[in-house]
Amino acid sequence: MNKHIKRCMSYALGIILAMGIGLSYAYAVGANDSNAFVTVTEFDAKVAQIEASLDNVAQTIKTTNLDFVMNGPRLQASLIEGMENTSGASTYGNPFESTMSSGLSTTTNNYLMRSNIVLTDQWDGRQSVDRYDYYGGDMNGPEYSCKMRYALRSDQDPNIYLIFSYYYVANSGHPTLVQVWYLDISKPYQDYSTARSLTVTFSYQDHMLFNGNPFYDTSRSSSYIYTSNRLEYMQNTRLCYSGSNNTPTYGALANPGTGYFTCQVIGDNVTQTYDFPANSGGMRLVAGWLSFGPCALKRMEGRKYGNLSDMLRVSVTGDTKPSQVYKVFSPQKNCLALKSYMNGEIPIFNE
Hints:
The chain is α+β, with helices and mostly antiparallel strands.
């Protein structure tokens, strides 16, 4: 139906414009030329002009105006380039702040002051609107939903990736509740029995901290870092922010060992080191001021972050069923991404 309407409107508009050009020309000839004589060359030139105008009108209608009006763009939840799927902007404009407070009767829980919906990409290119889920019980601290996920290839092995999930970034721009875990996509089972030190190196020119400041040297530190032997906890859709990972309402980490973070600025490059202890595949930063993970600039040209719905199915040593994560090109994220489920793709920002 839309095609027929557009075709009819295209013809009608083209005829109107053509008549306008032709009548104006006839008027000009009748008013200015006493002999009312038109040469063959002049006539052919005017016909060619009219045909070109019709082509331009048809092309414009086909590619822009009516297609845009009748079909419409994809739904957008925010206007932050590359982050339209993260939602949760605060009154300061910070795109990471959507929270549920502790206490079932709090104002935040009963009257949401901030966006509480998120767009999720579907495998066929469509989008759906989802709500952030909620613990539903009284908590011992504010609750934050996952706002963004992305992956970085490690320097040690092209098959090993560090996957970052951001839950809370303070108004100062420092990551305050973040999880990072590593994955070897060449293996059907992940083995975290031995300690592992992994680094990521990126350009100082193309990345910065979330507060806009440049990166700075950070000596090897374990402050506010907790480690996990339960890999499923590394893909939480929400986390309770209590300042301690030993006593949250849910998602408590067992801390099988001490994790460390180091950041070094050398020339135009920044190298971040994540030291995972034995029996730990991930770590969580709580309340710290460390520069966990980069905020990409040039790498975000046309790309999008993942959100709480972008997850991976992973099997560890001892599981009865293997799982494989694949590296694919994601039309939704507009870059290479890690994928295992039908829906859900975690974008890779350094490939």
